[in-house]
Design a protein that fits this description.
Layout lengths: L19 H7 L16 E4 L17 E4 L21 E2 L2 E2 L16 E3 L6 E3 L5 H10 L4 H26 L5 H17 L1 H6 L5
Antiparallel strand pairs: 1-2, 3-4, 5-6
Helix pairs in contact: 3-4
Length: about 200
C-alpha cells in the first residue's frame, strides 16, 4: 500500500496550529496532501470542515492535512465536503465524492503520473471521482504538471547522470556533481509524490 504513513501525533489537546511541526515532518518537506507538490504545504486543512459541521474535530490531529494554498482555497477543498449542508455543491452540482485522503487511501490505485505531460490521470477510465477531484483541486495546472514531469525525468535519468559524473574528467566532474545534487534535491522535495505514486522501484 502506498499511502502516507503518519507517526503518532503529540499527545496534546492544544489548538490545531500546535500540530504544524508534526504535520510538516510527516508530509515530506511540507508537501501538499492533495496535489502532492513539494514545499508548498503551508496551510493546515481540516479534512472534515469543523465550522457548522464537525466542531469536535477542530483540534483532532487525525482530521488535519497539510495543504497548499491553491488546493485549500475558496473554490477548492475549502469550499467542499459532500456531507456539509452549505459546502456540498460544486459549480452548482450536488456531488457525493470525497476528496482523496492520502493518509487513509492508496492513491496509486486511483491516479498515476503521465510521463509526457506530468499530468495526473485516472487509473480506471471514466472514473467520476477522479474527474471531480481533479477539477475541484485543479490538479493539472501547468506549473504543477511541469514540476511533476521534471521529478519523473530526474528519477528516470539519475543512473545516466551518475554515470556521466563517474566518467567525467577532473575539470568537468564538480559541475556535473552539482547538477546531480540539484536533481536529487528536487526528488527529495517531492518525496510524498514519489512515495504514494510509487515512482521509484
Amino acid at each position: 500500500m502506498a499511502r502516507l504513513r503518519m507517526t503518532a501525533p503529540p499527545k496534546n489537546s492544544a489548538p490545531y496550529a500546535f500540530f504544524r511541526p508534526w504535520l510538516e515532518a510527516n508530509f515530506k518537506i511540507r508537501s501538499c496532501g492533495y496535489c502532492l507538490t513539494g514545499d508548498t504545504g503551508r496551510e493546515i486543512d481540516h479534512y472534515e470542515p469543523w465550522k457548522s459541521f464537525r466542531p469536535n474535530r477542530k483540534n483532532d490531529p487525525s482530521n488535519l492535512i497539510l495543504s497548499c494554498q491553491n488546493c485549500n482555497s475558496a473554490g477548492g477543498k475549502w469550499d467542499y465536503h459532500p456531507d456539509h449542508l452549505t459546502r456540498r455543491c460544486y459549480s452548482g452540482i450536488r456531488c457525493t465524492h470525497l476528496v482523496y485522503d492520502v493518509r487513509n487511501e492508496d492513491v496509486a490505485l486511483h491516479y498515476r503520473l503521465d510521463a509526457d505531460t506530468g499530468n495526473l490521470t485516472a487509473v480506471t477510465p471514466r472514473d467520476d471521482r477522479f474527474t471531480f477531484v481533479c477539477e475541484l483541486l485543479k490538479l493539472n495546472q501547468p506549473v504543477k504538471s511541469e514540476l511533476r514531469k521534471k521529478v519523473l525525468q530526474c528519477i528516470n535519468n539519475m543512473p545516466a547522470y551518475e554515470a556521466a559524473v563517474n566518467s567525467a574528467n577532473e575539470t568537468d566532474r564538480p559541475a556535473l556533481r552539482q547538477l546531480v545534487e540539484l536533481a536529487r534535491d528536487l526528488i527529495r522535495k517531492h518525496e510524498l509524490l514519489v512515495t504514494v505514486l510509487e515512482l521509484e522501484s
